[in-house]
Design brief:
Elements (H helix, E strand, L loop, with lengths): L1 E10 L2 E6 L5 E5 L11 E6 L10 E11 L6
Parallel strand pairs: 3-5
Antiparallel strand pairs: 1-2, 1-4, 2-3, 4-5
Length: 73
Amino acid sequence: MLMIATVRDVRFNSLLVRDRVTSQNVVVNTRNTRGFFPGDIVRIWYNGVMTPSIPPQIFATRITLIFSPWCCR
């Protein structure tokens, strides 16, 4: 599955993002959070499994940067 989201917080081994379709906060577990910053818009691939916790959690298989407000102005 694919999610487009805005990064809200960068943590060790996870990102807190806001899904741009549902406006829901989601914790994205990933091995690499370096290079992402709050405000970045990212494309997240995951296996479709989302925990029923609050906020829900997913495990990313791939994350790519779509847009960063901190780059290339």
